[in-house]
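FAQ

Q: What does a record look like?
A: Structure on top, sequence underneath. For example:
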């Protein structure tokens, strides 16, 4: 995937990761949930040579889920402790963008983690790792020069395939879909099905039913 940045730095032609190793990659909570679901989060993040960041807002959002038995906050803290993920506070200038994304009517606002992720990426010439359709739509409309990457684009990346091997990459995609309920942009759906196979696609509730139907189901 090739994306232009405001300073004319370009991403690697076949990769979702920046060619410039100084560009930060800022992940939203849904991305961390999906990466944790793969059981290979450390290796996947390690395939990227750029700073991989989350905001404290994202950590708090995930930690709140632990009262319901989820462990994503704990697992994120482990990744931070290993030095694979950096916890980065919003600056005062970031806060202006952040406030603009959480204040107002429902249609034009986002949750705390999404807003802080976008605000930090905008303020530090980064890349926003976001899956939610509403957040991507608002971000594209308000910050059209900000590169957006989804979890599935990250998992399909050649650098991840090199790190995990093709079977490991396919397994990571499958687990993110089945256990993390990863969202997939429509233009990537067929590629995902080709990677994991129709039988395993049938086990993934976040995929559209038309892509989960096996050949037997279609014949009925």
């Amino acid at each position: 995937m090739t994306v232009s940045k405001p300073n004319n730095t370009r991403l690697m032609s076949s990769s979702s990761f920046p060619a410039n190793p100084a560009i930060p990659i800022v992940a939203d909570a849904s991305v961390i949930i999906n990466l944790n679901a793969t059981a290979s989060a450390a290796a996947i993040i390690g395939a990227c040579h750029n700073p991989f960041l989350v905001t404290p807002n994202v950590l708090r959002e995930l930690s709140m889920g632990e009262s319901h038995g989820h462990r994503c906050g704990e697992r994120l803290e482990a990744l931070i402790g290993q030095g694979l993920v950096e916890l980065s506070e919003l600056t005062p200038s970031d806060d202006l963008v952040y406030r603009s994304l959480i204040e107002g009517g429902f249609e034009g606002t986002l949750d705390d983690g999404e807003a802080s992720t976008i605000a930090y990426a905008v303020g530090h010439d980064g890349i926003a790792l976001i899956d939610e359709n509403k957040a991507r739509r608002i971000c594209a409309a308000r910050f059209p020069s900000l590169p957006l990457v989804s979890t599935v684009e990250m998992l399909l990346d050649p650098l991840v395939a090199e790190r995990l091997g093709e079977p490991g990459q396919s397994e990571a995609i499958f687990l993110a879909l089945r256990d993390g309920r990863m969202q997939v942009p429509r233009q990537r759906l067929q590629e995902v099905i080709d990677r994991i196979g129709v039988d395993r696609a049938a086990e993934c509730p976040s995929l559209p039913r038309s892509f989960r139907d096996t050949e037997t189901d279609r014949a009925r």
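Q: Is there anything notable about this one?
A: The chain has 13 helices and five strands.
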